[in-house]
Amino acid sequence: MFMNFRTEISFKNIEQMNKKIQFCNNNKIFKINIPCKGDIKKDFLLEIVEYIGKNHSNLDVVYHYSFNHQYSKNNKISYEYFLEFIEKCAAFRNKEILLVSGSKRRDGFDVIDVLNKLKGEINPKITFGIAYNPYYSDNNHIKEERERLLEKISTGIVNSIWLQLGSNLSFLKKGISFLKNNLNNINYSQNYKIYGSLFVPSKQSLSRFKFRPWKGVFFSNSFLNSVDHANQITQDILKIYSENNIDLLIESECSTNKQLNNTLNILNPN
Question: What domains, with CATH codes, occur in the chain?
Answer without folding.
Answer: 6-267 (3.20.20.220)
